[in-house]
């Protein structure tokens, strides 16, 4: 078993860049995960683990991937998370080609908080969403904070990115009704019937759905709530809508 004590070691620098550099993740096709639970989820999903680092010898001896043993301070230096697990690993990204045939789709328009994106990926997986589409300046689904919030959904939930003008073609190809989650007047109430083949758009936390994406929508849908409530958190609203899609599907 290889032991590494220097933070400047190329393998350590490689893992650290996977945790902090989105462009590096994109270029290498790899991302950083933490914890044995996520490791087991990744292995179960059939993803390739390329390298791991741990501060505990007993953990290194139980995993089947290449693992290096490092001091606690080196492990902490690798991870951008405030409370990293004692086991970090590099994982190959899943296939990001859009699913060809879909019935339930979640579209995220500039949702920038990694926790929200991760939570929505987790909900999408739980409620059998065929495809999650990221548009605009969304949080990276492979940011370690997103991966942790997704709790393993990253390894199994189909996710892709699209330019805004690609969305109408995808919606039409799959015969989907595209509804934006918004409090607009005249929108559908969630209590009403929803189409069987449906794509729901969740907008950014601060500004909602942008005008270009809203123009592509066939309408809007709103969640009934107390009048004094301004809005719901993006992840909460999205999860409620996904539950309704699942319940009625």
Secondary structure: elements and pairs:
Blueprint: H1 10-20, H2 22-28, E1 30-34, H3 36-44, E2 49-54, H4 57-60, E3 67-69, H5 72-78, E4 87-92, E5 104-109, H6 114-126, E6 131-135, H7 144-150, E7 159-162, H8 167-173, E8 177-181, E9 188-189, E10 198-202, H9 211-216, E11 219-222, H10 234-248
Parallel strand pairs: 2-3, 5-6, 5-10, 6-7, 8-10, 8-11, 9-11
Antiparallel strand pairs: 1-4, 2-4
Helix pairs in contact: 6-7, 6-10
Cα-atom Rg, whole angstroms? 20 Å
Give the tally of structural domains.
2
CATH architecture of the largest domain: 3-Layer(aba) Sandwich
> Percent range for helical residues?
25-40%
- Mean pLDDT, to the nearest integer, reads 95
Tell me the series of helices and strands, N- to C-terminal.
HHEHEHEHEEHEHEHEEEHEH
Please state the overall shape, judged from the principal axes of the Cα atoms: elongated
Structural class: alpha/beta
Main β sheet profile: 7 strands, parallel
The CATH homologous superfamily of the largest domain is named SPOUT methyltransferase, trefoil knot domain
CATH class of the largest domain: Alpha Beta
Weakly predicted, low-confidence segments: none
Predict the CATH topology of the largest domain.
Alpha/beta knot
Lateral arrangement of strands in the main beta sheet: 7-6-5-10-8-11-9
Tell me how many strands there are.
11
What report would you give on this structure?
The protein has 249 residues and is of the alpha/beta class. It has 2 domains: 10-92, Ribosomal protein L30/S12 (60s Ribosomal Protein L30, Chain: A, 2-Layer Sandwich); 104-248, Alpha/beta knot. It contains 10 helices and 11 strands. It has helices spanning 10-20, 22-28, 36-44, 57-60, 72-78, 114-126, 144-150, 167-173, 211-216, 234-248, and strands at 30-34, 49-54, 67-69, 87-92, 104-109, 131-135, 159-162, 177-181, 188-189, 198-202, 219-222. It has a 7-stranded parallel β-sheet. The protein has a 4-stranded mixed β-sheet with strand order 1-4-2-3, with helices on both faces. Helix 6 links the parallel strand 5 (104-109) and strand 6. Helix 6 packs parallel to helix 7. The protein is elongated. The model has no long low-confidence stretch (mean pLDDT 95).
């Amino acid at each position: 078993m290889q032991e590494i004590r220097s933070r400047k070691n190329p393998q350590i620098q490689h893992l650290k860049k996977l945790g902090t550099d989105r462009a590096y993740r994109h270029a290498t096709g790899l991302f950083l995960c933490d914890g044995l639970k996520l490791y087991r989820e990744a292995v179960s999903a059939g993803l390739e683990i390329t390298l791991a680092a741990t501060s505990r010898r007993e953990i290194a001896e139980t995993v089947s991937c290449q693992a290096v043993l490092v001091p606690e301070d080196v492990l902490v230096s690798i991870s951008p998370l405030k409370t990293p697990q004692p086991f970090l690993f590099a994982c190959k990204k899943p296939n990001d080609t859009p699913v060809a045939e879909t019935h339930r789709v979640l579209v995220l328009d500039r949702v920038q908080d990694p926790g929200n994106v991760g939570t929505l990926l987790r909900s999408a997986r739980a409620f059998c969403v065929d495809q999650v589409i990221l548009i605009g300046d969304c949080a990276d689904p492979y940011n370690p904070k997103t991966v942790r919030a997704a709790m393993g959904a990253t390894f199994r939930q189909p996710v892709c990115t699209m330019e805004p003008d690609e969305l109408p073609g995808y919606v039409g190809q799959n015969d989907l009704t595209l509804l934006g989650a918004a409090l607009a007047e005249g929108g559908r109430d969630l209590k009403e019937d929803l189409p069987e083949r449906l794509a729901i758009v969740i907008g950014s936390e601060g500004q909602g759905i942008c005008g270009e994406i809203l123009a592509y929508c066939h309408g809007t849908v709103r969640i009934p709530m107390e009048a004094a409530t301004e809005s719901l958190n993006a992840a909460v609203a999205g999860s409620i809508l996904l539950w309704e899609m699942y319940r009625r599907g």
